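Late entry, written up from scratch paper. The run itself happened at the end of the previous shift, but nothing got recorded in the book at the time, so transcribing now.
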Amino acid sequence: MDPTDKEQPSLGACSCVSDRLKFRSDKILTDEEWLECYNCLKEHVTPNRWKEMMRHLGLREVDIESIFLDHVNFQEARYQMFLLWRIQNGQSASMSKVFHVLDKMELRGCKENVANDLTFNGILVA
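Output as recorded:
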């Protein structure tokens, strides 16, 4: 069946929780809140999709490979990639951008799980 077939449910038309959420008063996230965002992402983005997500967020391949050379432990390498993305993007780094990338990667369920966790932890509000 064609994915654009009108009889199939459209993910784009879905009124999902993550589409209705906003960060608290659009304030800049604290380091603690960013750490919570990272922890939610690492729980829901599978290791085999992590590098792809970081590429979509704009991390260069040379930086990704350098981090893997410097940090043999995958958990630490994953954290260092996320940290480098935050540093490189400064105040323009946002979970809205991450959510956009998760949509682009067709990881809508992952996006929903992250949004639900961040809402539960008070970082996002409906």
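DSSP finds six helices and two strands in the chain.
(Scratch paper discarded after transcription.)
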